[in-house]
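ARCHIVE RECORD
Type: protein–small molecule complex
Small molecule: iron/sulfur cluster
Source of inputs: curated submission
Record status: active
Notes field left blank by submitter.
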Amino acid sequence: MRLNDCDPSFKHEIARQPGGEGIKTCFACAACTARCPVGSLKPEYDPRRLLRLAILGRREEVLSSPLIWLCCSCQNCSEVCPQDVRCTDVLTAIKNLAAAAGYAPPSGQAMARQLAAHGRLLEVGEFENDKRAELGLPPVSEQPGDYQALLGLKPEAPRPAGEGA
Amino acid sequence: MPRPTLCWVAAPGLEGLEPPALAMAAGLDLDQGGALEAAVVTVPEVQAPDKLRARLLGRPVQWLDLAAELGGGGEGHRGQRAAAALSRAAGRASLGTLPPLYSPQPNQRVLVAGQGLAALAAARQAALLGHPVLWALSGDDPAAAGAGEDASQVAGLAAGLPEGIELAPQTELTNLTGAGGSFTAWLKGPQGTARQRFGAVALAPGGAYRAEPAPPGLAPDLSRPLSACQPASLASAQGWRQVAILAGVGQPATAQGFARALATAYALQAQPGVQVTLLFREALVAAPQGERLYRQARQAGVLMARLGDGEPRLADQGRTLVWQDQVLAEDLELAPDVVFLCEETGAPWPGFLDNNLLWPARSRLLPEHARLDGGRTARAGFYVLGALRGTPAGEDRLAEAAAAVHDLHDLLGGGAAPLPAVRTLTCARCLTCVRVCPHGVPEHVEDHIQPAPAACLACGICAAECPAHAIAPPGWSTAELMEGLACGLAAAPAPAMVLMACGQSAMPAFAELSRSGHVWPAGLLVLPLKCAGRVGLELILRVLSLGAEGVLVAGCHEGMCRSVTGNLRARLATGQAAGTLSDLGLGPEAVSFLHMANNQPQALAKAVEAMYARLGAVE
Amino acid sequence: MHNRGPRRVGGCLEEIIFLSALDKPVLIIGGGVAGLAAALELDRRGLASLVVEKGPNLGGQARGFCCKALEVCARCGACRVGDLLQQAAQRPALGALTQALAVAAQRQGAGWEVTLIPQEGPKPTSPALALERPLGERLLVQTGAVILAVGHQVFDARKKSRLGYGRVPGVMTAGELEETLAKGGLPGQARRLAFVQCVGSRDQALGRLYCSRVCCGFALRLARLARYLEPGSEVTFFHMDVQDYGQAWRAELAEMRAGMRFIRAIPGEVRPGAGGPLAVFAGPDGQPQEEEFDLVVLATGLEPPVAAPALSEMFGLTPGAEGFLTGGQGVLVAGSAGGPRSIAESIESAAQAAASAAEHLVSGQAPSPEVAHA
Ligand SMILES: Cc1cc2nc3c(=O)[nH]c(=O)nc-3n(C[C@H](O)[C@H](O)[C@H](O)COP(=O)(O)OP(=O)(O)OC[C@H]3O[C@@H](n4cnc5c(N)ncnc54)[C@H](O)[C@@H]3O)c2cc1C
Ligand code: SF4
Ligand code: SF4
Ligand code: SF4
Ligand code: SF4
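STRUCTURE (tokenized, with ligand):
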């Protein structure tokens, strides 16, 4: 791979995402790789490798990689990282960029649809609320509005004052 | 012959011993406060009470650290060991002593040759300690800084130069002979060459940058040394998009060089449109702030590329660097617009030091040696400082210069051992001592052997090697050693064995074991030496001929001898003695050599034990 | 001896040593290699000093280290402690008080008046030297200059809990290995050794963003020694970078690389295994990998001395880089108290501290480090 053909701004772009700030400081010690439970199940998955590709500026390769979606956000890597990279958060930032670039995996897209429709990953209907009533739990209602706003499907609802930017 | 008296000074470790009985056993009078001809004292000189020291002034004295030689065991056992040790000292004391020979006042002048931080600091400190200093500058400006030095730090120090420094601008040291207290220097200045005498010499040439070699085959127009990239010229970076910096690729980098590469990478990366790739084998982050710089550079966006052996390879007529990324395990290529080569500071080794008639080889004069610190070289009174030694710029150079000046002040002020005595009548003028003395002390002057006044460390190598028994540091002639050992061995119960203990390694370890109650074999006699180098083939054979059944010589580990070659010489002599013994049909295992450090007392205890086991087997 | 005399302080009589007026113009706090070297350097300059050591023995941490020579000296510097103690014992002007703690300091003109109190503590580990005299009573010391040589603190490996120290049998620190080897043995059958580098150093997450400088050197020398003592043992060296210690070291390193397994990765975890500690690390293929060892050695880094905040306050110093000590007017710093330093570097730094202290005594104005750096 020719570094001249890579995108040097990619690492900065990730670093500008919330949670992505730490990416550039990774010094490839592989402590995260050793601790990552996904890696021990799926041999191709290596958080350090993903970070390295991103740092080198291999934008398309990273964003289109199905591997970035395998991170289970267990924070094991963040715990051991000596450079405070917060690898989990960096991968989340990368996932967000990937989604924005249209690379969200089908499962993710299905989840988004589910959220948009129901405000949860499961549809809550009468059946569920009846069961909850039997167990003495209060009923829950579907409030998909927030998610629709987040997913850009509807204009954002005005927030109560003082709730942050 | 003077009759020696036993001056018993009680000390921890001597409890339970009976001085009168011991004095009798060792053939000494016990001190009753009367007049003294010669004395054996049971503690080292610094531990003796002032009154006693005053009484002994000018008399032959054997200061014996008896507790250090004794060790534990039952009363009878310790009594036996004490009697043997005292007999050894008594035998030696009965010979009387030459009063230690100190020189006529060593020359107090100090020559500092060079420029930059180290030279400045050395000149300054030497002058503050009252030495007249001649500072031979290569240029004109005492405030000029060497490569890699902080110009304002140098200027700050140069602003307040103390009195007593004579500046000799544009002057070069072209030749040098001598040792501590008496050097002769040839100085070439604008007025020609002049010869001057000094007591100590510090060589501290200002450093220059040397760029590491470019990878062979790299397009020549691509590469430049790092110093071609000063912040002022960063503007020219406008045209560059891809910048490569090689740090420790063509030659090993140092932490200082690496830190400088990081700082440059960081500054370049801040230029719009520039992507810097730093190529290196190891991130050398041990310089002050090194790790911080490393992280800052990454944070700024510098790409870190770790190379393997034989990398980078070159492609595209030397315009593309190729290496394997160690995380991805795949090849990366970079066609940079410019390649900067990391620089290290250094100074050329002066030619006159390569004169092997006057100077030992560089590896002997300035070995990488844990004891030759603080600018010291094997030649006492001669110091190599700063860039020439490879000392990093900054505080380290100041510290080294300060240490060197303290050392020379101590030497010239009489802190050195007394001079070796030369018996001119028996001296064969074979120049063996001149050749073997690691510190350059004996000089051949007008058909005499004349010792430099402030350089002898009393290692005794000359005495071990001199074929005519004509030179020895005070108290160290073979005759003196033999008289002591003869008396000691006569008093030691069989099987008697002599441990010749180097004062830098074996003796401190022996003392520590003794103080912690280690029980030594009753027949073990210790001969404390300043350096194992005092031991020659002759000494070993003569000790065996006195009835010792074994001789163990213990000296420093290879490369750790304060006198550079003393331990190796002793090891060689031990081997020769073993060879001689087997030629004679005797057991070569009666002699052996042990390399050890002063923090390895167990090794010594084991070796003594093993020797005794062997002696038992031989019997 | 010192000029002593009673003095009334707040209604009590106190004993006071007039150090500045008389024979001991410099007070050295800390009796490790740096403190001892400072005393010797001052003595070479013709200045007396008093070393104050809080522990029972002089020599500091390096006193427990082992010699790392095989046949040839490895230049680790450990035996320099013995050298210094011996040289100090030969110089009558050197004085030392052990089991003494400086608890207060007051500026007095260009110098200081420092209060020492006896420090309860463990008995000497080795037979006390003539030089080592315990402080019996509270003492005031007047001095022209102070050298702080209180050394460093070793990183507490428990803080890197994933590496198992204190939890997993068979995990020890390099300092413990030093002492084990110094006492003449490797624990049990340690044939499979792993070293983990940079424990507590080069670590932004712990706020220790610096290299401890000495651990690559001592760990590799220890590894080599362990292999030498136990031929056939295997060493795995987990590291990020190997620091440089000069020409001779490079040749040795090349040999060590040939004889040991160097893995450029830091293990993520060490847990108990069936036959010894089990390290989890990224293998060369980037996959998590587990391997059992007999001994996992953590190369713990050098941290600022525990006494740094208290001393900074006592002497009105501004905290230095990374929390290490910096000097001030009439207060100098030597050894690893001022930043990670090897034994050799600590000894050399003491020369500069001694020189600056001496200049301060003359002018009342030592070139403070800030000025020198300006
Ligand atoms: C595991 C390990 C291995 C190492 N191995 C090597 C090696 O092989 N080679 C090498 O060159 N370096 C090595 N080092 C570094 C070495 O330990 C230091 O360079 C050296 O100890 C520094 O000496 P020092 O005198 O500055 O400090 P210290 O040795 O820490 O001595 C400081 C002294 O001050 C005393 N003190 C502390 N506080 C006070 C107080 N308030 N009042 C009075 N006294 C006080 C302490 O009791 C101590 O005696 C190693 C370090 C570690 C952690
Ligand atoms: S643990 Fe941190 S520094 Fe190490 S490879 Fe992972 S992200 Fe990079
Ligand atoms: S005793 Fe050693 S230093 Fe002194 S003159 Fe002889 S060989 Fe040289
Ligand atoms: S410097 Fe280290 S390796 Fe060398 S002799 Fe001393 S303790 Fe041993
Ligand atoms: S010296 Fe080596 S082990 Fe120690 S912190 Fe630096 S790189 Fe890590």
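CURATOR ANNOTATION: DSSP finds ten helices and no strands in chain A.
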